[in-house]
């Protein structure tokens, strides 16, 4: 077995230099936990639109170690079942489990503000690497980690044992938390959730912190950090940008089928006040999800090659269709909700407030709703009720 102590120290130094790694205790964890143990049986590397498998056993040892200590996210599963040891040639597929880029992993656990003796609940075990870092820092008995995929959970548990950590690895739906080990001082989610489940709030001690990435768009999600209050609410802010795979039970089903049929009956058409291409930018994409929850941005082309953009909100039976007209964009909208009207209104108010970054967004969680806001402007305040369909 290759000694990777040098690579671990080098990784820690790079993370510290980039500002992700700040405290000696977490640096010691990064320098001690071998990341390569948590990549078995292998990884998938992007190659020409496909995924090339690399296995720990079959790869050149030098190349394997170099890959294990990259700063990039490494895909470990495709399509909910396929691992690198099951194929020998590049394959197509959708990533469903990964070892997240170390800077994001370390930056998040630094933001947890943990203290010795804290009980931590992790949602989304994945490879088990972040759980191992927390076990090193807090002790294995203080970490509970939940993974919905039994095969992924089994591999992570084996890797944790190999690394010397007999922690609480649970197979189940992490959106329900793990009440048997509650209450927790900290909850951290390494998956994307549409909103923070109230079960996590209920299972966290007053004064405890929940850290989770909220949203449904990969290019427009926010890292939320909220503190649980004595009255059972939680309040805090979006502290930065982050992107994770969606929690499986909340995964958005892509809109497909005949888009022309879906948009055949519009209630109105007009020129847009701004380009819908702004939704490819992070903060506008995040705001779009606040203003029109449940909406999905879809791109397509016509038979003549013309570019089309759509917003679909299937559960709200609404759509917006955009088409370039040479001087700008036109929008056709249908259904009970004017998706683009609501988004455009939010973006206009945001621009009027000076286009603040995502860290300007406040968040309050109750058993009935999530409320987001920017400053005091009522146009920049959104309440998402938990009993809504989206």
Short description:
It is built from 10 helices and 19 strands. With 390 residues, it is of the alpha+beta class.
Topology:
Blueprint: H1 5-17, H2 24-32, E1 42-47, E2 50-55, H3 61-68, E3 74-78, E4 95-99, H4 102-111, E5 120-123, H5 129-138, E6 143-147, H6 150-162, E7 168-171, E8 184-193, H7 198-202, E9 204-214, E10 222-228, E11 234-241, H8 259-262, E12 268-271, H9 282-291, E13 296-301, E14 307-313, E15 318-324, E16 329-334, H10 339-352, E17 361-365, E18 369-374, E19 381-385
From N to C, what is the helix and strand string?
A: HHEEHEEHEHEHEEHEEEHEHEEEEHEEE
Number of helices: 10
- Report the β-strand fraction as a percent range: 25-35%
Global Rg: 22 Å
Would you mind describing this structure in some detail?
The protein has a ten-stranded mixed β-sheet with strand order 7-6-5-8-9-10-11-17-18-19, with helices on both faces. Strands 12-16-15-14-13 form a five-stranded antiparallel β-sheet, with no helix packed on it. It has a two-stranded antiparallel ribbon with strand order 1-2. The protein is built from ten helices and 19 strands. The chain has a domain at 253-351: 2-Layer Sandwich (Double Stranded RNA Binding Domain). A hairpin with a 6-residue loop joins strand 18 and strand 19 (381-385). 25% of the residues lie in helices and 30% in strands. It has 390 residues and is α+β, with helices and mostly antiparallel strands.
